[in-house]
Amino acid sequence: MSAPYERPTLAPSLYAYAEGLRASAPDAPLPHGGLPLPDGAYPPHDPAGGPDGSGGSRGPGGLGVRESRLAVTALLLRLLADPDPERAAVELERMLAATPVQERDVFHAVTDLPPPGDPDALDRARTLGRCLTRHGTTVHAVAAGLGLLARHGEPEDVPHLRVLGLLAGLDRQVVTVLDPLDRKASALVWLVHRTRRTEPRGFVDALVAGDETTAAELLLSLPTSPRGLGPEHARRIAEAVGLPTLLRREPDRPDLLAQALRLLTRMGSGRNYEAEICRYDDAVTLYETVAARAHELPPLLGHQARLVTLALGLHSGAAHLLPWPPGRRRDVMALLLGAVREPGTATDRDDLRRADWIRRTARRLRATRPVEPSGAPRLRIEVAVADPGDPDVVETRFLVDGRPLVPEAFGRGPGESPEQLLASGALRARPEPREVRLAEAYCTEGCCGALYVTVRREGAHVVWDGWRRPSGPARGSPETPAYRFDADAYDAEIARAERDRSWIWPARRTAWLISAGLRERPGLLTRWGLRRGWISTDFREPDTTVVTFDGPPLTADGTPDTDRPVRQYLWRLADDGTPPEERAAAALRRLAEEDPRGYPEPPG
């Protein structure tokens, strides 16, 4: 054998095969993506053909996804009545091998089965699941067993599932089964298959080997930048090491505390398809641990910014929705903000911007007050700007009786920008109903949906109802009630939010004023045959205002070439220290005098 795990071994089951591979090379690093499956683990008809296959929605036998799942459901319902689960397991594996279906459809068909009607049926289902996972010789049979254990698994199944999870092609199903049983084991399986970079692999190998001391030391070297570590990756790392317990065991390690702060901040990031902080069972404990020791952190700019980020999430982000004991969330916020010190002298432009953000955001958070109960729901609208060191979208947040609306009602992306909702007057209530998009999924609306509400004035009230979430997943959408706000209070809050400029910085203010000017004078662009696009600041360079517009390109003599496709143009205006009002006025004057398609591109 030229390398560990290179040659498949003969094994009576996938579980025994995986166990044998690990026993044959217990100290060898696991390959990225897990242990290779043996030959024959996938039946010849499988449309995907392997763990990395990309089979379509219809297999060679002509079964689509729905038909495949119905076929599997029919098999299972018949065999679950068999009083001999071992015999049923053998029969199911044989029949699945003859059914053109992908293992993911097998798994989902089984998890969608109605629950057993009596304790004996439940015991049969659990025993059948164990027979299939421990003795199954094909991925399809094991996937069926995993589907049963996803509904009926118990802690005693964890060791076997952990071994199966080391195999390529089964990790997603194993993680689904392990999540409610053992988050630490589930996180380990997830990390084995998702960790690609060289630095974290040693950390993962130490976890697999059960070497907690080495894993704790290697934890300190893990990259925690936005590019190096996503929110789910941060959550899985925290789960795998038991981060709150590790902090309690190592109370004199400010370096470990600082890494916990980074991981907690990454979990709270909105740059994901779900709010990972709400999926982390130990979130409240970790928040409390970090907040109680925040004063021990060195006064570095990055630490200060992360403390403010955590406080902002507790105030109006998804972390607000964690199961906090009464009053404890505000206590933790106070501890975090109490540890934020005045940023030191900075000379670097990025550090200056970050220090200014820390001052402004901490000041706003310290000024917040608890919402007192009242007869009608109370609406508060705030604009949330992320730490410039971890850039994110600028979003509009809605607090109803102090509770964040978008994370609770939608949870798949941030609120719309203040330009879309506040500068445009979209939230102003009128007698005629108007639908407003409050939030869009982190990817796009067409992929994972959006959150819409209908706003209308009704006598002495403003009503928000008619909630709509197009294109999103069918499951998991909470029922959002209709809100009836006092009309006078609502109008006053909208007016206050539209006037509020405490969140804005010069380049963004310039963009806001240019947008307002073009709304008032649309002819500045239409005279050149152009249509206005988005106007904001550059995501990576927030001190640069970006004006976009669409239209046909120019010919060599400077006239529009209407025979060529329309293209998008970007006009970038770097902040030169001129007041935003003067810069916006100058930009609008130039648009009135010159076709912007002829503006020179800014130097790269």
Q: The biggest beta sheet, please? A: 4 strands, antiparallel
Beta-strand percent range: 5-15%
- The level of helicity is 40-55%
Mean pLDDT: 88
Q: Kindly name the structural category.
A: alpha+beta
Structure overview:
- The protein is α+β, with helices and mostly antiparallel strands.
- It has 25 helices and ten strands.
- Strands 4-5-6-7 form a four-stranded antiparallel beta sheet. A three-stranded antiparallel beta sheet has the order 1-2-3, with helices on both faces.
- It is globular, with a radius of gyration of 28 Å.
- The two termini are 53 Å apart.
Which key phrases capture this entry?
single chain, alpha+beta, 4-stranded antiparallel sheet, 3-stranded antiparallel sheet, 25 helices, 10 strands
Lay out the secondary structure:
Elements: H1 14-24, H2 65-79, H3 85-97, H4 103-111, H5 119-135, H6 139-152, H7 158-164, H8 171-178, H9 183-194, H10 198-208, H11 212-219, H12 231-241, H13 243-249, H14 254-267, H15 283-292, H16 301-316, H17 328-338, H18 349-366, E1 379-384, E2 395-400, E3 403-404, H19 405-409, H20 418-423, E4 434-440, H21 445-448, E5 450-458, E6 461-468, E7 483-486, H22 487-499, H23 506-520, H24 523-526, E8 531-537, E9 544-551, E10 567-574, H25 580-593
Antiparallel strand pairs: 1-2, 2-3, 4-5, 5-6, 6-7, 8-9, 9-10
